[in-house]
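Two folds, back to back.
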Amino acid sequence: MLDGGSGVDIFPLSMLLRMEIGTRRIRPNNVCVRYFDGIKRDTLGEIDLILTIGPVDFEVTFQVLDMGTSYNFLLGRPWIHAAGAVPSTLHQMVKFEDKDQEIVVHREDEQSIYRDPSIPCLEAIEGSEHTVYPIF
């Protein structure tokens, strides 16, 4: 999920455990976030993960939270600005440039974008004007 209003990139602890990523990789920090319900809570720490979005790898520092969510992770302003991305919630897509090529990523998909040998890579879907890559 992309959230242009979020000031952090969020990774729920439950997803971290489900993906069998060791919690020992979580670095302690002093970050406090305000949940969607307005309540402030401390993070468990932060973790750096490599995400493959379209044909591009991004190293993203996520704040790890022990919370129930309806999404796998949240890419907020830190990732959006680092990628130079333009998200559109209305159109369920995000655009960014890489090597003078426009990358367009559409809607949710069942495939994972976490770069791990045990998780399949994204397959490109050829579009008429540009290549379209699914994201979840």
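---
second:
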Amino acid sequence: MNAKIVNWNDTYNVELDNFKNFGDPGAEWFGHAIGLKMIKCIQSNCKISQEDSVLDVGCGNALLLTQLAKLGFSNLYGIDYSAPAVKLANSIVKDQNIENITLKEFDFLTDDVKTLPTFSLVLDKGTYDVISMDDDSKEKRNRYKENIVNLLQPNGMFLIVSCNWTQPELNAQFGDVFQVVHTIPTPSYQFGGAVGNTLSATLYQKL
């Protein structure tokens, strides 16, 4: 087990204790606002029904999935390689009396994705960023893309939010297997005369 996995387990063990002791579900990755924008994008730009299957890759505490469940989405899945993260997510889902979210401990890069069902929509909020920071990033990014494609049904949708990759960089990496459907506006900044965005958020459709 590498150091990064151990660190994530440590993080989610702390959040699990905080939830048990104080009812605090923990942080929402990239903040609550981007989660709301993702949900709005799903409702406005994804050609799916509330009964279609949705997967959150690296779901963490599953707060995004619980929000979708409360809006009526009924076929929700979350996977994460961290056992404490899945335990925390299950505790939150149970506490909120949500019955239509399936959570599983699953390593997206090493476990066999053929054991999972296929999906109409796959979500990623930060998982690709974590993979990209690894020493053998290129190989793992290629495996990640292959798995996303294999998990999506024909014409399936892929919504990704990244803090490490710009919009053109994401398009360059995924453009051979996906087409851009919608780009979510994100906060911008200016430095040295150049303008950029703090996050890149894009909805793709499988070619």
